[in-house]
């Protein structure tokens, strides 16, 4: 299953730090984590003793996926199929040079604590130099145990409401992945507004103002007389704040023309069409 923002023709960004889910409890959360990873170009998913939904061999795992156990992955099932399974956390981090542990609680272990924005900038720089990094995420109900945090080099924590600091597992992966993508790919917009019409030149704007104000004057808008200058300035400033394009000005002016002059006379083609509609209506009545 794919989403509205999926473009299979676009280049697929992969790599990044390993995402290590320690004793995840719910299969649906593993799927949501995979989807979050795919959103931000992370492709190394490692699972340590998942409680459900992941069988020990590839054949059983594929059958679980076909049954829809990981339908929440929404287009990122390939990450689940490629996920590495481990019996112990020590095995899962053995090939890594630097490991972050995510936790909402202060653990008293004297480890450096960073927010995701700084942690992922550090990871992006380290991985660019050839180091291998990973991020630990604990089980949904309890989070990482102290001994698991002790295997990490430093801690990532999230700036959240202190009265409700517990994040959903996939949300934690999403926030970390977002900062990884910004740090590794550059903090740029994926697309920008397409300018279909150039900005209106000042001459065009002034002509529009003069036409508009002339007809407002004719209809007694600028009263009392002493407020005429400020009323004109307010009107012009209102339109200037819109940063109108040439097409905007043409459309607005055309709309005002019709309001001022009333309906325009029908052209030859419009008259013929109207006559045909009238003829058809009369023919229908005569039946």
Plain-language structure description:
This protein is of the alpha/beta class. It is built from eleven helices and seven strands. A seven-stranded parallel beta sheet has the order 3-2-1-6-4-7-5. The protein is elongated.
Range of helix content: 40-55%
Overall mean confidence score, pLDDT: 84
Strand ordering within the main sheet: 3-2-1-6-4-7-5
Q: Any idea what the CATH architecture of the largest domain is?
A: 3-Layer(aba) Sandwich
Extended strand count: 7
Largest sheet: 7 strands, parallel
The name CATH uses for the topology of the largest domain is Alpha/beta knot
List keywords for this structure.
alpha/beta; elongated; 2 domains; 11 helices; Alpha/beta knot
List the helices and strands and how they pair.
Layout: E1 18-22, H1 27-39, E2 45-48, H2 58-66, H3 77-81, E3 84-86, H4 89-92, E4 98-102, E5 112-114, H5 116-128, E6 133-137, H6 146-149, E7 154-156, H7 169-185, H8 202-218, H9 228-241, H10 246-261, H11 268-286
Helix pairs in contact: 1-7, 5-7, 8-10
